[in-house]
Design a protein that fits this description.
Layout (H helix, E strand, L loop, with lengths): L1 H21 L1 H7 L3 H4 L11 E2 L9 E2 L2 H4 L27 E2 L13 E2 L6 E2 L9 E2 L42 H7 L40 E2 L16 E3 L9 H4 L7 E3 L29 H4 L39 E3 L6 E3 L10 E2 L17 H6 L59 H4 L5 E3 L5 E2 L5 E2 L3 E3 L5 E6 L18 E6 L2 E2 L17 E2 L13 E2 L5 E2 L26 E3 L5 E3 L37 E3 L4 E3 L9 E3 L20
Parallel strand pairs: 1-2, 20-21
Antiparallel strand pairs: 3-5, 4-6, 7-8, 8-9, 10-11, 11-12, 13-16, 14-15, 16-19, 17-18, 21-22, 23-24, 25-26, 26-27
Length: 669
């Protein structure tokens, strides 16, 4: 009985062996990949990873499950194992086949630097992959080694952030990492990866979706997205309509201004986004006082000290491009700030005159801090314009504001610096010469020696500002010309000319601020006068000449009749008739007359305008209705009182004792 059972068992065993050996085709058709190196529950085709050949689980050394997401088919296998999508159980030949270019990388990507299959063994010697695109073309960690972890493992492939070379195109990554540091902030522009499965999709385009500070998608990127590997040529595009490169008004509106654009990889200063200082139009959408003269002299750290400590570079990126107006004064306590979408309010502003509150965007006029002009007698004498016309650094004068003015309007820049940075700097700066003064301005007419000497005693205006009654020297507006003829002037038959040895010299009066009122003779004489022997024949100046005998000639003598009043030839400047007195030599001194039109006085010009209405007395009244003057040649024409001349050059020599050549120049007997 026992023998019979033994023979029966042997027969069954042999039959089973033959079935297994001879029924190979049936076995090939039935077995699945996961039955050898995957798992049944849950169903997973990926090989089981282990640190050794585990016959219980089927696991072996590798990192398959870190490279491929859970899958119920073998579609991902051919990335590394060629032909594996069509494998049957017959591939079990004891050799492991690896692609000659893993994952179809742009560079040839190899495992263990080999294209040949290698034997399967229970004690493998794992290698590395090189130039494979899913590891950013860098040499990988050893196969089967510890897995990369987030975020420390990010820089095992590309840089964290990319910084050029094998780490990936630098572009603007490093700059942005200073603002949004760490791998957790890559999501500002890319998909939020906290695992490494994104590497398995190497070869597809990058995902670039810019986000605003509220972490909401905003704007877009214009560049090519498939050329990110180190071996590929790079062409950067631009980020468009993004908050972080806008003009700074977004916190007020909640949206980036349309048209904002910045090229990736480009370098730039503060001007590249919001200007330095910001230049957005005031009121569009928020007020802008950055470029107000009283603010533009300061650097950014005056009001944003915690963002920029030096005023020119961002020293705390966390407080920049963060959707908040970080206002912090330097020095601390200089003012407070209350936010409002339109710009906000600065409170207790120490850098303003009265330390009161200021609404951002409100334009302060010059009379807000001090009066405009300061309420002192001398200021009022020099400036009779409106507050709106006043301006620090402005060198305009009366004629620039009106053709007919009842007061001088000599703007601030004529006596104070033209540089706005010197305004509200704690000093009362007086600047009477500046080589950059506009051509034709009064300041441009001053010599380099023009200057102001402060007085000793302090005085105070209505607003409490101190000043002294110093003195101005070598300034054009308190000067006059004198004419000399070294060596004399010989007689000439030329009826109208200026001698070649005529020398014109400008002399300057030193005047005291708030000194006595200066009349006509306070600057030039009344009338302007030359004398022998320094000047021969009144050359250069036909107002008045005193000859070597002490007698007077020219217009102020008027052949013994009434002196010719200033108003007859300067009718746009003065209108009143002069009175006069004579000395024992019958030399006339004219009285003061009021300025009729200040736009025609102290303007850098010799304004000649004849009185075409009134006649002046001589043997018979003379009219100047048809008279004309050419300032280029200093020639008067159609002058009725010059009975023998149709035109005459102002300053032509005239000596009564040279007869007939000079005595008859104006008239004939």
């Amino acid at each position: 009985m026992n023998g019979t059972n033994y023979r029966q068992r042997l027969s069954v065993g042999l039959s089973l062996m033959l079935t297994l050996l001879c029924g190979a085709d049936f076995a090939d058709a039935a077995i699945q990949c996961y039955e050898c190196h995957g798992s049944r529950n849950p169903l997973d085709y990926r090989p089981v990873d282990a640190s050794y050949r585990n016959v219980t689980t089927g696991g072996f050394v590798g990192n398959h499950r870190a490279h491929v997401a859970i899958t119920t088919d073998f579609s991902e296998c051919p990335r590394c194992h060629p032909g594996s999508a069509a494998f049957s159980s017959s591939h079990r030949d004891g050799m492991i086949k690896v692609s000659a270019n893993i994952n179809g990388s742009p560079l040839q990507a190899l495992y263990r630097n080999s294209t040949s299959a290698f034997p399967q063994t229970s004690a493998p010697s794992p290698g590395t992959c090189s130039s494979v695109n899913c590891h950013f073309e860098r040499t990988t960690q050893t196969w089967g080694g510890p897995l990369l972890t987030y975020p420390g493992g990010c820089n095992a492939c590309h840089g964290a952030p990319p910084a050029g070379g094998e780490t990936g195109a630098a572009g603007s990554h490093v700059k942005h990492d200073a603002y949004y540091s760490g791998a957790g902030n890559c999501k500002k522009c890319h998909a939020d990866h906290i695992t490494f499965y994104h590497a398995t999709s190497a070869g597809r385009d990058l995902v670039v979706i810019p986000r605003n500070p509220a972490d909401l998608p905003e704007g877009y990127y214009t560049g090519t997205l498939g050329n990110y590997l180190p071996s590929q040529a790079k062409t950067f595009g631009s980020c468009v309509n993004t908050y972080c490169h806008s003009n700074g008004t977004s916190p007020a509106t909640g949206a980036a201004p349309a048209g904002t654009s910045r090229q990736w990889g480009a370098t730039g200063s503060c001007n590249a986004c919001h200007g330095f200082p910001p230049v957005y139009a005031s009121g569009s959408p928020k007020e802008n006082s950055h470029r107000a003269p009283e603010h533009s002299q300061f650097k950014c750290n005056k009001c944003h000290a915690t963002t920029t400590s030096n005023g020119t570079t961002v020293t705390n990126p966390a407080l920049h491009a963060n959707a908040v107006y970080d206002v912090s004064p330097s020095p601390a306590g200089l003012f407070s700030y209350t936010y409002a979408p339109t710009g906000g309010t600065c409170g207790s502003v120490g850098c303003h005159f009265d330390s009161s509150d200021r609404i951002w965007g409100a334009r302060l006029t010059c009379d807000y801090c001090h009066d405009a002009p300061p309420y002192t007698p001398a200021h009022l004498r020099h400036y009779g314009g409106t507050v709106a016309d006043s301006g620090y650094g402005d060198t305009r004068i009366t004629q620039d504001f009106s053709t007919n003015a009842t007061a001088y309007v000599l703007n601030c820049g004529n006596c104070h610096p033209m540089d706005i940075a010197k305004h509200r700097n704690g000093n009362v700066d007086v600047e009477l010469y500046n080589p950059l003064a506009p051509a034709g301005s009064l300041k441009a007419l001053n010599p380099p020696s023009a200057g102001y000497t402060p007085g000793v005693d302090l005085f105070f205006d209505n607003k409490g500002y101190s000043y002294t009654k110093g003195s101005c020297a070598n300034v054009y507006c308190h000067s006059y010309n004198d004419w000399t003829t070294p060596g004399g002037v010989p007689q000439s038959t030329n009826p109208s000319y200026l001698p070649p040895n005529l020398v014109t010299t400008r002399y300057y009066r030193t005047v005291t601020w708030e000194g006595p009122h200066l009349g006509c003779s306070g600057c030039h004489a009344n009338p302007p006068r030359t004398s022998a022997p320094a000047n021969d024949g009144g050359a250069g100046n036909s107002h008045s000449w005193i000859d070597e005998y002490g007698y007077e000639s020219f217009h102020n003598y008027n052949m013994g009749f009434d002196p010719v009043s200033c108003s007859y030839c300067h009718n746009d400047t003065v209108r009143g008739l002069n009175s006069w007195t004579h000395d024992e030599m019958w030399v006339a001194t004219l009285s003061e007359v009021p300025i009729y039109n200040y736009a025609r006085h102290v303007n850098g010009l010799a304004d000649v305008a004849f009185d075409r209405v009134n006649t002046f007395p001589f043997t018979t009244p003379y009219s100047l209705a048809n008279a004309a003057y050419d300032p280029a040649t200093k020639t008067c024409s159609n002058i009725s009182c010059h009975r023998g001349q149709t035109s005459v050059i102002w300053g032509t020599p005239y000596r009564w004792y040279y007869d007939p050549y000079e005595c008859n120049r104006c008239h004939t007997y």
